[in-house]
Write a sequence for this structure.
């Protein structure tokens, strides 16, 4: 207890114990050259997680919008001194955030005239600080796009930050004379260029069973499509050259994957016909017809992972992407589930970047690539 | 984000409820608290042709955060006389609850394995050394004791009424020993009254 008092004093020299049991402290906390009155009462067992905090009106004002964060910090705190350190840091952040000056009046007048140029009907959102705006546009294929623009306080000296759901980041050309309407025009041009790319993906979505991603956004460039049960093909389309042969990765039992790979390599480049659609080309090269959602049922291709017993992985939402090579078994797994299982076993061997173990159902030897923690 | 262990427990709960074994009321699983699915109550029925026949055995099941990569923690709540189950704590010695666990196993397979363990004990890998010794040395006495425990604690139908056993327990009761303690002492000492008394009063 004496130790903890010393530490409290170290963090807040003006915060003193108000009772002999040291369950209540009162005094001042100093942040950014300002002192605030503060009173902390701990419950009888001294558990900091349930501490009560009282403070003066100024501090209350700063904290009013951050109660949830404060509660979380309190629950995560190890002891009172460590909470006080956290608390000071939080207060520091809040104070520097609120200290930001408002932009000059001409910022607003310029913004209003620029929005007028775009047309108010296309403005779908603007925040209360007039800093974040969203413009909605429809493209020729009936897809809806939202362009989010964040304006810094120093706009138009500093460039706006644009964000949109596109396969590649949208980076408009900008100079101080560029208006928001110019940016919107650039955006319109960009989405026009992507039309063919989205058309290719739309065809795959409509005519094949797509395992991944479960609900594709306009930015995703790949589709994992069903060839037959336990065998699928991941197709990654180049957004700038959608009509060219995409990058293809077959997933399934090793033998069947090999057959698909052989066909892709031997016939891929020669037989690719840019006048046909990507789907037609793939069917041609692989000599398969992808099962169509019109004539087949989705249940036929929904596989459950043998470890988590679900179709969609609990974290990444992917469908099972590994199959046991034993033909009698063909148990599907999520690579990540299998990886986690193998790493939890002492009998698993690790060599050349692979983990070697056994199928949980048939004991057939299986191997998965060692995973590098992804940054996603 | 839903965590894996909870999603799996929900699924496995449904699996047990709809299973054939549950319909024949051989196994059962219950949720104790809807808001905490990591604590469950399991039930297995003593299999036929064993001293446990017709007994209802309650199990305490705890699901670790790392489930299914680590096995669930299961122990007997109902007292039982079995070489692989502690007669005091209810701890179970079963390979699949330890190093032979596989992530593909489920609560249903765990309950069925425990039921199978009641059918075929493994005295060479014991949890309760005293019971195991009795099982190997005097199988008849083991069956008698196990049956008595099943009738007393697990509500197995009383097919035999062992007056001798009751008389010995009564003797200890009159000495001020609790019934559970008396039964434990007598069972541990092959129903030798003197030995049991010695163990209780020294």
């Amino acid at each position: 207890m004496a130790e903890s008092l010393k530490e409290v004093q170290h963090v807040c020299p003006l915060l003193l114990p108000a009772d002999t049991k040291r369950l209540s402290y009162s005094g001042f906390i100093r942040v950014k050259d300002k002192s605030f009155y503060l009173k902390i009462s701990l419950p009888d067992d001294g558990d900091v997680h349930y501490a009560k905090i009282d403070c003066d009106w100024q501090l209350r004002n700063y904290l009013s919008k951050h109660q949830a964060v404060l509660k979380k910090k309190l629950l995560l705190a190890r002891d009172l001194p460590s909470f006080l350190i956290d608390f000071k840091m939080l207060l520091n952040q809040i104070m520097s955030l609120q200290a930001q000056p408002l932009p000059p009046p001409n910022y607003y007048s310029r913004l209003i005239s620029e929005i007028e140029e775009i047309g108010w009907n296309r403005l779908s959102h603007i925040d209360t600080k007039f800093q974040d705006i969203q413009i909605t546009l429809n493209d020729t294929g009936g897809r809806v796009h939202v362009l989010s623009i964040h304006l810094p306080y120093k706009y138009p000296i500093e460039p706006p930050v644009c964000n949109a759901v596109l396969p590649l980041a949208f980076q408009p050309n900008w100079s101080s004379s560029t208006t928001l309407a110019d940016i919107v025009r650039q955006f319109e041009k960009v989405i026009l260029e992507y039309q063919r790319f989205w058309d290719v993906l739309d065809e795959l979505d409509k005519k094949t069973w797509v395992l991944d991603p479960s609900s594709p956004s306009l930015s995703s460039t790949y589709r994992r499509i069903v060839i037959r049960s336990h065998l699928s093909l991941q197709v990654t389309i180049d957004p700038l050259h959608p009509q060219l042969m995409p990058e293809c990765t077959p997933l399934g039992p090793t033998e069947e994957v090999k057959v698909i790979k052989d066909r892709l390599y031997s016939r891929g480049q020669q037989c690719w016909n840019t006048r046909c659609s990507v789907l037609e080309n793939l069917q041609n090269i692989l000599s398969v017809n992808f099962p169509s959602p019109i004539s087949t049922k989705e249940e036929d291709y929904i596989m459950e992972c043998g470890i988590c017993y679900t179709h969609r992985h609990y974290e990444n939402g992917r469908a099972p992407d590994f199959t046991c090579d034993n033909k009698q078994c063909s148990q599907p797994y999520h690579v990540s589930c299998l990886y986690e299982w193998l790493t939890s076993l002492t009998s698993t061997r690790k060599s050349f970047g692979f983990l070697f173990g056994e199928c949980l159902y048939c004991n057939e030897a299986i191997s998965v690539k060692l995973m590098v923690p992804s940054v996603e | 984000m839903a965590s894996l262990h909870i999603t799996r427990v929900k699924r496995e709960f449904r699996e047990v409820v709809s299973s054939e074994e549950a319909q024949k009321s051989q196994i059962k699983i219950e949720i104790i608290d809807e808001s905490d699915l990591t604590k469950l109550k399991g039930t297995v029925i003593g299999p036929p042709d064993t001293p446990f026949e017709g007994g209802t055995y309650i199990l305490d099941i705890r699901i670790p955060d790392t489930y299914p990569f680590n096995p669930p923690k299961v122990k007997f709540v109902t007292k039982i006389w079995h070489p692989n189950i502690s007669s005091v704590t209810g701890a179970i010695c079963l390979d699949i609850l330890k190093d032979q666990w596989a992530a593909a196993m489920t609560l249903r397979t765990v309950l069925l394995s425990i039921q199978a363990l009641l059918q075929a004990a493994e005295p060479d890998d014991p949890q309760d050394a005293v019971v195991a010794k009795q099982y190997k040395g005097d199988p008849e006495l083991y069956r008698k004791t196990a049956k008595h425990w099943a009738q007393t604690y697990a509500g197995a139908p009383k097919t035999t009424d062992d007056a001798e056993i009751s008389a010995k327990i009564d003797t200890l009761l009159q000495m001020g020993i609790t019934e559970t303690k008396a039964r434990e002492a007598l069972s541990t000492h092959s129903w030798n009254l003197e030995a049991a008394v010695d163990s209780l009063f020294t």
Notes: The interface with chain A takes residues 1-4, 7-8, 11-12, 66, 68-70, 102-104, 106 of chain B (CB under 8 Å).
